[in-house]
Design brief:
31% of the residues lie in helices and 16% in strands. It contains five helices and six strands; from the N terminus they run H-E-E-E-H-H-H-E-E-H-E. The chain has two domains: 137 residues, Metalloproteases ("zincins"), catalytic domain (Zincin-like, 2-Layer Sandwich); 43 residues, no CATH class. The protein is of the alpha+beta class. A three-stranded mixed sheet has the order 1-3-2. Strands 5-4-6 form a three-stranded antiparallel sheet, with no helix packed on it. Helix 1 crosses helix 3. The two termini are 25 Å apart. It binds zinc ion (2 copies). This is SprT-like domain-containing protein. One of its GO terms (biological process) is response to stress. It comes from Halomicrobium mukohataei (strain ATCC 700874 / DSM 12286 / JCM 9738 / NCIMB 13541). InterPro entries: SprT-like_domain.
């Protein structure tokens, strides 16, 4: 792929969008994804989110995944899909490897493909089939993939997640869970 910046050198939102857009162009060619990337807008979210990325699109009445939509019938659409927005979560990018991030983008590309053809998108059978072809996950990548998960020792509730080493990770035994006032158990994800 022809990226304007190396993945490991990304250090601001513009870089992340530039890399991600270039990757999506590459993926579109490689897996023959039928999307119009000129109708995709990009944004980076720095708010805490559970999802690594998301596609936001206008709500179109009576749209069903699998039913091709005639965009000519949609006001303001000029016969083309109304733009959708691919929102990238900065903290997820910082946590993910290049392979994980690329897989996340392929997942989102499937949402864009469905949306541009059917005006809606979901994780049903059509998505599963497409995800297999594009070698990506059916479920949106979430921060459940954090490197460390801290659980209440008494009831097992997840109390905290951490993606990078930080004081909390080293000193978690000083904290108690809100639910039971119990010690925490640290579970580390193995790569
Ligand atoms: Zn999804
Ligand atoms: Zn508890």
């Amino acid at each position: 792929m022809d990226a304007p910046v190396e993945f490991d050198a990304i250090d601001d939102h513009d870089d992340l969008i530039a890399w991600s857009r270039a990757y999506c162009k590459h993926a579109r060619r490689k897996w023959l994804v039928d999307v119009r990337l000129d109708l995709v807008e990009w944004t980076v979210s720095t708010r805490a989110r559970r999802r690594a990325a998301a596609v936001r699109h206008p709500q179109i009445d009576d749209a069903t995944v699998g039913d091709a939509l005639d965009w000519d019938a949609v006001p303001d659409a000029d016969g083309r899909p109304l733009p959708c927005t691919l929102s990238l979560t900065w903290d997820a990018f910082r946590e993910f490897s290049q392979a994980e991030w690329a897989s996340t983008l392929r997942h989102e590309l499937i949402h864009v493909e469905q949306y541009q053809h059917c005006a809606t998108t979901g994780h049903g059978a059509a998505f599963r089939w497409r995800a297999e072809t594009l070698d990506t996950e059916v479920h949106c990548q979430t921060f459940a993939d954090a490197r460390w998960t801290f659980e209440c020792r008494t009831c097992g509730t997840v109390v905290a997640r951490r993606y990078r080493d930080c004081p909390f990770v080293r000193e978690y035994d000083r904290y108690r869970s809100d639910c039971c006032g119990a010690q925490l158990r640290c579970v580390e994800r193995s790569e």
